[in-house]
Amino acid sequence: MDKTIGWELYRSLLAVLEEGSLSGAARALGLTQPTVGRHVALLEAALGTTLFTRSQAGLLPTEAALTLRDGAEAMHNMAASLERSARSLGEGVRGTVRISASEVMGVEVLPPLLAALQAQHPELRVELVTSNALQDLVRREVDIAVRMTPPQQDVLLATRVGDVELGLHAHRSYLERHGQPASVADLAHHVLIGFDRETPFLRSAATKLPIWQRDNFHWRCDSDLAQLALLRAGAGIGVCQTALARRDPNLVRVLPTRLSMKLTTWVAMHEGLRNSPRCKAAFDALVKGLRRYVK
């Protein structure tokens, strides 16, 4: 290869990998199908290898294409990060900041904090990624992350905001129908809300509360938001953040001395963003607001 391969070719490769077809990639990128096809052909010629084979199911990526995927995703994330940085140039807090958090934190806790932040800085734009999967700060998938696990990478700036306590809760309407369990043994006679697939949290909870296992759950769901909705609907007894439950007078804590799990919470960002006004403003606002929340 005598020439540097342009990013647009890798961008088209990534789109085809994600969409499974040239037409889908073209729609996602806002390009024409022939343009995407030409990009893939140019990339194949430059690399001297086949990236896709055709089948009745569409385009199938070769091993070479799959090998390139991580690098293409890293280029995509860096390009998006550069674009956010470029749009923030100028005086004051402006531009776009991309923040990730778990489903419950992103939907139930962060919105008022971020609304206050945006009201204070009208030229700031916020992209909120709500997912229980960890977004990669090193590869710039996001600018800032709220995490329940301590960051491991040395290139990250992280501030511990406190512990989010979890406990068993039920809606008053459920307890009026079924009664308040007086002991752990009583839980065997109640409707329990839990996970479908085993997780590290589930295994940890089961060591403290052996009944908290998949086979004992009447409601099984891997979405924390759906579990919270079931609690609020009076469907049964489940786990909820105690600080969140305190906001709702209808959510009552059950067996408070028997199960109390604490998740240490962090706000983290890449150290390369330490001098970014938009990221610093968002980082400081999240730390301050979350410390109030976990008290």
What's the structural blueprint in terms of helices and strands?
Layout: H1 7-19, H2 22-29, H3 33-47, E1 52-55, E2 58-61, H4 63-87, E3 95-101, H5 103-120, E4 124-130, E5 144-147, E6 156-171, H6 172-178, E7 193-194, H7 200-208, E8 219-220, H8 224-232, E9 237-241, H9 242-245, E10 251-254, E11 261-270, H10 277-294
Helix pairs in contact: 1-2, 1-3, 1-4, 2-3, 5-10
Q: Can you describe this structure?
A:
The longest helix has 25 residues, at 63-87. The protein is α/β, with parallel strands linked by helices. It contains 10 helices and 11 strands. The model has no long low-confidence stretch (mean pLDDT 88). The chain is globular and about 75 Å long. Strands 3, 4, 5, 6, 9, 10 and 11 form a 7-stranded mixed sheet that branches. It starts with 6 loop residues before the first helix and ends with a helix. The chain has helices at 7-19, 22-29, 33-47, 63-87, 103-120, 172-178, 200-208, 224-232, 242-245, 277-294; strands at 52-55, 58-61, 95-101, 124-130, 144-147, 156-171, 193-194, 219-220, 237-241, 251-254, 261-270. Helix 1 packs across helix 2, helix 1 (7-19) crosses helix 3 (33-47) and helix 1 packs across helix 4.
List keywords for this structure.
7-stranded mixed sheet; 295 residues; alpha/beta; 11 strands; two-stranded antiparallel ribbon
